[in-house]
Specification:
38% helix, 3-stranded antiparallel β-sheet, Spore Coat Polysaccharide Biosynthesis Protein SpsA, Chain A, alpha/beta, 276 residues, 11 strands
Length: 276
């Protein structure tokens, strides 16, 4: 599972090729013609202490229940119960090794989508779109592309990196793990779940693995890259959400972003709850 700079570059170039790809639509693989369940799934680690601003974000998704969608909100306890009941003790132990709520959410979404399929969306995203039904039209994995500029230490806007041949040697292309939409047992979700589980198992006792590469977007991006370069046919398994911001936006500021609940501030640190 070596993650060398050269491997990072190969992965970035592979994803860039997918993101900037033009041409007609490929026929949908028969296995994806049936869409996933019209279920919206979210996670917040402690529903007893759900911040008001997060609750407002979640409400923007629960409103879709009046249009025939199901909304499921999990916390640490119910997520662990789902994993233990739907998968096995191995996956339950891996979830227990997720030391931060963001890491738990990362791992849980892979477990849930592998077992049930549907739409997973982070609890701090606000739905601004007027229609979401098209996301469930087929069972292909739908992901949001991102691009990071190493030199400036900032994200590159989609309008700059999406057009054909847009290139800068300091740009790193990858896929976000939010949102994730897929049919159950999608092979790329399965690969990402397997890899995250392996990494959590292999970590030394008491170690705090890096979140992004273990369970987050880095893990998903690498899994899609490995699927595409070993199995092939990734273009038929995947839909690039090039205009996701027209449907949902991540809300700033939020109360949890300035404390330990923000994974960027707690990466590879032991998470302490407010009551500890």
């Amino acid at each position: 599972m070596t993650d060398s700079p050269e491997h990072h570059r190969q992965r970035s170039e592979f994803i860039r090729g997918l993101v900037q790809q033009s041409g007609g639509k490929l026929p949908i693989n028969d296995r994806y013609k049936q869409g996933p369940p019209r279920t919206i799934v979210q996670y917040w680690h402690d529903l007893r202490e759900l911040p008001e601003d997060i609750e407002e974000c979640i409400t923007s998704w629960t409103r879709w229940t009046t249009s025939g969608f199901t909304h499921c909100l999990f916390d640490e306890r119910s997520a662990k119960a789902f994993i233990g009941g739907s998968l096995d003790a191995r996956h339950e132990r891996a979830f227990e090794r997720c030391y931060h709520p963001a890491m738990q959410a990362d791992y849980f979404r892979l477990c849930y989508l592998f077992v049930e399929g549907g739409l997973y969306i982070d609890a701090d995203d606000v739905c601004v779109g007027a229609k979401i039904g098209w996301l469930f039209d087929d069972g292909r994995l739908k992901v949001q592309p991102l691009c990071y500029d190493i030199a400036s230490g900032a994200m590159v806007s989609a309008s700059d990196f999406l057009h054909i041949d847009a290139y800068n040697p300091d740009w790193i292309f990858y896929f976000n793990n939010n949102p994730l939409i897929a049919s159950q047992r999608h092979p790329m979700i399965e690969r990402a779940l397997q890899r995250a589980t392996d990494l959590l198992e292999l970590a030394d006792e008491g170690a705090l693995p890096e979140i992004q590469m273990t369970t987050g977007p880095g893990n998903l991006s690498r899994s899609i890259f490995e699927h595409g370069t070993t199995v092939g046919g990734v273009e038929r398994d995947l839909v690039i959400l090039r205009d996701w911001d027209s449907l949902a936006v991540s809300k700033w500021p939020l109360s949890h972003r300035g404390d330990a609940r923000n994974w960027r501030l707690s990466n590879q640190q032991r998470f302490c709850r407010n009551d500890e």
